[in-house]
User: Fold these one by one.
Assistant:
Number 1:
Amino acid sequence: MSSPVLLLEVLAAGRRYYVPCAHIDGLELLRPDAPLAHDKRGRPRLARSLAPLLYPSEALATAPQQALVVRLRRRSVALLVDRVEQLAHDLAVQPLGPLLARSLAAPWVLGAVAADLAPILVLDLRRIAADLALAAL
């Protein structure tokens, strides 16, 4: 994935990440009083915050405000983030080296993008959603 792709910048646990726009089937603003949404087949949508998945030992400072909806074959998963920031054009995703890739707790990172003089991780939302859906069975 080293050719330029359209990425969306999101904040989760106070940290910046990029996610491929191709992985997102919908964006939703969350309301605390809203009932749990259902997918097209009438099943409850699985909703999980990204922050505790990425940093399980840290307490959440704020409740997530926006949902990145990923549709899988059998269900939809809403991955909750603090905020969706902006689109990023023409950024090339560089794969992580073998040493860094092996040190990840889960294989949920596609690579990194050099932006603002610092590397920003690009998350694999489809993989995260699939892992969550499997764990929920």
Note: The longest strand covers residues 83-92.
Number 2:
Amino acid sequence: MSTKRFATNSPLDQMRRRDGAARLSRAGGTTTTAIRGFGGLLQTSPSIEELGSNSAAAQSKLDEFDTAIAKLGTYKLAAAQLNSQRAGLVTTGPGVSDVLRRFITAAAAGDIAQPQQLVPEVTSAISKFQAAATNAG
């Protein structure tokens, strides 16, 4: 699908920009909900054993996140800044999912050292994702 740039400020072009922003907002909301659900599982797990026992639910939240990121990759937006944010989420999202899946798998194994070793990578991936989401163009 090609991206058409809207050079005018006609009512139709304004509507198209608003539609693009709304579309990105809906998709972003889905990714945010999935990540927050995952974060909630982390916060309510008082121990590595508890986190490991919640691994299926955490993997399910990451599946939702992956689906939302994949959907973002199926279109482009006319507004350059929004499209840049969308593309950044598509690029960085899989890295977030990958490292969080490895974190949960390590927690499910019950070895505290493995998840702790992944914390810097988790932090980096999430920081890149947040930067992509707030990219001002």
Note: Residues 6 and 91 are 25 Å apart (CA to CA).
Number 3:
Amino acid sequence: MVTKLVRMSLLMLFLSVGTAYAQTDAAREKEREKYIQKQYQEYYDRIDTYISLLKVDDFKGAIIKQKIDEFYKKRNQIMMTEVSEYEKQPLVEQLKATHFSDVEELYTEETINSIQRFLTDNKAEIKKLQKTKKNN
């Protein structure tokens, strides 16, 4: 009788732990999806803020937005490859140097330099542009 009770208790314990694990796994996946969605929204908000602070018309702003988005997609592809870390960085730097070369003639050197700084540290570049806009 006691062994039957122990077996039954262990079975119930095992089933409750298995169910709890599945629930936490699903909850974890839901949290992960929520986090990724939030990160993408912040990413697009930063790009929109940056474009609005640049001194370019809507057409040129749309091109910059598209090129920045393409750049980050290509950069993420490089980062996800099985290449070692010290080999990835030069590839990203080369991408950064060449990605906007086809549209350089549309923009001033100051704008191209600003885009390069944005790709390196977008929050700092946004702050710099906001400070510049306040002073003007």
Note: The first helix runs from residue 2 to 53.
Number 4:
Amino acid sequence: MTLFAGNTAVWTVLCFTAAMLGCFWGYRLQKLVIALVVFGGAYMLVQRFGAQFLPYPGAVTGLAIVVAFIAAGLSFHLYLAGVFAALVCAGISIARMWIANDWVALPVGIVAGCVLGVLAVRMNRTIVIVVTGLAGG
């Protein structure tokens, strides 16, 4: 019985390589991974919705590529703003789940989200290094 046959060996090597890169170069690769994910998401969104408005498939694809590159470039340079905004939204969501009164939950969530956002932005490098080290190891 062969343990690794065909594509399984290739995928195993690729996954192992990705895990090691994430483990040892996680912080350096963080912005690149974010930019690649945003590129793919922006391309799919423009491709899907652009077909509703443009009759030419080539024009839709060209527009999708241009918008995807712009979105990836913005995310590469503004990822800390995205981290802060995501944690503010998470703070509001958590406060609304725990506090029944929305008039109280909203300001508490905004304050808690801002505190979490500032901590995440200030400790971003440390958190990413620890998380990618644990995930890769």
Note: The mean pLDDT is 81.
